[in-house]
Amino acid sequence: MQLTSENIYRFLHKRQLIDSDAVVKGNFTVIPANTRNTILKIMVQKHNSVFVKQMATDPVSVSQFQREINAYALFKNNDEFSALANIVPDLLDYDDENNIIITRLLPDAKNLYEHYMLSKKFDTNLAREQAQILSACHIVPDTKTDISGFPKILPWVLRLNQFKAEDFFVGNKSSTGIIQLIKDNKVLLNALIDLTASWQYTHLIHGDIKWINFLATTNNDNKLTQKLIDWELADIGDPLWDVAGLLQSYISVWVLGFDNNNPYTNELPDYMKPFDMRILQPSAQAFLEEYMKLQQYPDEYHNYFYDKVMRLTAARIIQTSVEGTTYNSRIDANYMRCIQLAFNIMKDPMAALDELFNIKLFQHV
Q1: For the whole model, what pTM was predicted?
Q2: How many Cα atoms occupy the beta-carbon half-sphere of 4 within 13 Å?
Q3: How far apart (Å, rounded) are the C-alpha atoms in residues 351 and 314?
Q4: Which among 88, 104, 336, 363 counts the fewest CB atoms within 10 Å?
């Protein structure tokens, strides 16, 4: 069964997920979204609206559907993860025959990228809350907790050495070209191999942390708060990958904001100047400080933490660049900027920490 705007009412009505009386009164709007999944936002009433996601039936999509369902089950059935139930949208139902997930829709919410683009402000309280959300997620499951539904898979960018360039995004010449470029760069490829060797299969991780997966919404006190969505890549893995994902969001919005038609400029266009890295630094610093405090990392761990996080951030930048290129017929100049920046970070992570985030460790000269 493939969901459409025309048959979604029958599907939801059969599962008793909508208020039929409200629909009769004309309160029923379907808003489709153009993504790789089938996304339908169903507006009925403010507190009775739903978000429907249907994933494809190929093996990768089926696996990702199961991972998201397993994550929700973990939040519901295990006390150690119960805090996460309050920071994800309510799961209303799912259909594992058709890979459909139905959650409560937050009608007034904007993803964090949208929020920042509209507000041009980077509230450090939001950054600290993101650290709190990740810290609540990053728990080593109890030995009695069933985690068999999580495959313990490395992010694909850390497996570039294991496959040919054309194996990742089949039929996409631009993506194949940029992957081959990375594979031909021995510094980058060896750095990715080193990260693979240091990967930990220890904590629950979200696996796809970025600004668009945080929803900014208002709570009962009319204060801005956040929900974390899209748990398709949830796994048992290395928590620093999630930290790197958020740092990558800061860097990517800056680097991808340059004029693609003028690859030699070092000036952001006027409309992107609020996203200059120097303006973003206090928010990123607040996130890192709060996360490290919550994780209770001892002082002697800080150097290792920053070094590895920066190298994982470089890997995450590469992944974002390649995935972004899949939507284009050519490799944009800004994606090449990203690859060059990733190369520079891999060569000297501590210098990059200083230059990008204005965080200086006493060992760095």
Answers
A1: 0.94
A2: 4
A3: 13
A4: 363
